[in-house]
Amino acid sequence: xxxxxxxxxxxxxxxxxxxxxxxxxxxxxxxxxxxxxxxxxxxxxxxxxxxxxxxxxxxxxxxxxxxxxxxxxxxxxxxxxxxxxxxxxxxxxxxxxxx
Length: 99
Known about the structure:
Elements: H1 15-19, E1 25-30, E2 35-41, E3 50-57, H2 59-80
Antiparallel strand pairs: 1-2, 2-3
């Protein structure tokens, strides 16, 4: 029996994308066919914020992303200690990651 090898994916990233963007707020919405993740930066005391990146993905991929985040957070906490997220008040939910 011959073993089938999966082709390797070569991933490229341009210089601007490689720099990344900082986000301190995420908004997630969905339809029956996709999830939309908006990554936003809110400056303290600023009345407006801008979406820095938008990712559209399938429900199945969103679920795989959730599993990957859980796994990576567990690895991070095993190495560096528990991440203290705390409970946010309604006022605090205006700035930061929430769902």
